[in-house]
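pasting Annexin for the record, 318 residues
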Amino acid sequence: FPQVYRGSVKDFPGFDASQDAEALYNAMKGFGSDKDAILDLITSRSNKQRVEICQAYKSQYGKDLIADLKYELTGKFERLIVSLMRPPAYSDAKEIKDAIAGIGTDEKCLIEILASRTNQEIHDLVAAYKDAYERDLEADVVGDTSGHFKKMLVVLLQVHLHPTRALPPSPSHKDLLEAGELKWGTDEAQFIYILGRRSKQHLRLVFDEYLKISGKPIERTIRGELSGDFEKLMLAVVKCIRSTAEYFAERLYKAMKGLGTRDNTLIRIMVSRSEIDMLDIREVFRTKYEKSLYNMIKEDTSGEYKKALLKLCGGDDE
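structre below
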């Protein structure tokens, strides 16, 4: 079956990179910038087209479009627009670099990216990180994390080296039972080995079988047997195996509910999923939280930042 496109942002018909470059140049020249013009143009082009606009801008004006946008815009709106201009792998690389730079680590960001990306996306991320920062991503992650959390992140980073590593079906559900439920103390290495190195299809069968045998979902065992960031990472891996769209719907809801908005999370997800599965995320969101993603963004954000997020959302499901 042909894959049905589930993103909210599509290629702009009749696209002309040099015309768009000129429009952006004009929107930024002189005193103050035309933020609405910048917003409308950038959110209605696909990532591939935005990359071409950057190239056209460079050859027409000898300037770096991303640098100019950073100079002209501010705050959350600037972060969102600049994220849209980077190819996905470079956007992920920047997020991870920020997550491990300086004192302290943003574990939630590491978990979200490394638990949810496909083998190919991880492969591209590792290459983009090397290209952008002349550093080895795995070495940087190892240097910044510890324990079983670190071991699992390394497994997730290495899977792309062996995409065929989806091992043939084996009694993994029994292995998981023995690693957790039936064991005095937990064999974390076994959890890492099974959840980190098998295909999604295989693991879904394992989870079903596990439920039959133990009478409880694997998530409950993970909560009971593991702890801290390692537990959060394993739960994220399981959620993404079951449904990536549901995982992201939940992340978006948590980023906006209650007081204050976790804007970095909101921006990262809206940008990274706008050309992958935003329509699926919206559908799950509507069912799960009985309100549309569009409405929640509308109530929770403001100004140009809000307008840009709503464009990426692509429509209201109320």
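The domain at 88-161 is CATH 1.10.220.10 (Annexin V; domain 1).
The first helix runs from residue 17 to 28.
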